[in-house]
């Protein structure tokens, strides 16, 4: 089973992945936790370029292709082998982030992004995606409280508004895969809802 967590900055994706993984592991499920960009040696080096080195001026298309390169490596090196071995994979971001950030946010053509994504992932799609939704202003304030902004977090509020709209549009187009979660609530409240969704949607024993 392949589960992804998506959403704007400060939505609490990493926190919810940790909380869900603790429950699933205690119930005896074998898990693989990973993230984008990153998750492999190659992907981690790409992450340094696209997120951590804020001094670089990266064109939107270059940015998308770098994310896609990291994603291709992650799918082939980590995600697909884990799924074939029967593990549950929890991933902090996947291709929906590129559609939202580089498509809706940067203005790149969505059809082109989808075509490249299909090739990069070999058509691998998540079984379930949680969209951690909250107003961008709130999310950026949370991100600021963590410390220095990365390259994407440094973008203006209008950019992040477009990204949020993109995520919501993607969720509306695939209601069978997406669950939109109100991320303005406490981590415990969100965790309870996610557990209920996982339990009702998937054949998991807790």
UniProtKB/TrEMBL annotation:
Give the E.C. number(s): 2.7.4.9
Catalysed reaction(s) here are:
dTMP + ATP = dTDP + ADP
Record's Gene Ontology CC terms? cytosol
What NCBIfam families does this protein's entry cite? DTMP_kinase (TIGR00041)
State one molecular function term (GO).
ATP binding
Q: Which gene encodes it?
A: tmk
Write the record's keywords in alphabetical order, separated by commas.
ATP-binding, Kinase, Nucleotide biosynthesis, Nucleotide-binding, Transferase
| All residue ranges annotated as the Thymidylate kinase-like domain in the record | 5-194
Q: Name one GO biological process term.
A: dTDP biosynthetic process
**Which positions does UniProt annotate for ATP binding?**
7-14
The organism named in the record is Deinococcus cellulosilyticus (strain DSM 18568 / NBRC 106333 / KACC 11606 / 5516J-15)
Q: Which family does it belong to?
A: Belongs to the thymidylate kinase family.
Fetch the InterPro entries from UniProt.
P-loop_NTPase, Thymidylate_kin-like_dom, Thymidylate_kin_CS, Thymidylate_kinase
**What's this chain's function?**
Phosphorylation of dTMP to form dTDP in both de novo and salvage pathways of dTTP synthesis.
* PROSITE patterns per the UniProt record, alphabetical: THYMIDYLATE_KINASE
**What HAMAP family does its record include?**
Thymidylate_kinase
Q: Which Pfam families match?
A: Thymidylate_kin
Name recorded for this polypeptide? Thymidylate kinase
């Amino acid at each position: 089973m392949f589960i992804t967590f998506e959403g704007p900055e400060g939505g609490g994706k990493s926190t919810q992945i940790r909380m869900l993984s603790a429950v699933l592991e205690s119930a005896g499920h074998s898990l693989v936790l990973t993230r984008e960009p990153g998750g492999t040696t190659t992907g981690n080096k790409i992450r340094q370029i696209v997120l951590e080195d804020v001094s670089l001026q990266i064109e939107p298309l270059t940015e998308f292709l770098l994310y896609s390169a990291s994603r291709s490596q992650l799918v082939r090196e980590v995600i697909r082998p884990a799924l074939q071995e029967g593990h549950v994979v929890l991933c902090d971001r996947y291709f929906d982030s590129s559609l939202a950030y580089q498509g809706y946010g940067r203005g790149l053509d969505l059809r082109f992004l989808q075509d490249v994504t299909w090739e990069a992932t070999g058509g691998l799609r998540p079984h379930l995606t949680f969209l951690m939704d909250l107003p961008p202003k709130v999310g950026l304030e949370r991100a600021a409280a963590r410390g220095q902004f990365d390259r994407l977090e440094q973008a203006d509020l209008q950019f992040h508004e477009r990204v949020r709209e993109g995520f919501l549009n993607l969720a509306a187009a695939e209601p069978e895969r997406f669950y939109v979660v109100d991320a303005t609530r406490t981590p415990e409240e969100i965790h309870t809802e996610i557990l209920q969704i996982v339990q009702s949607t998937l054949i998991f024993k807790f």
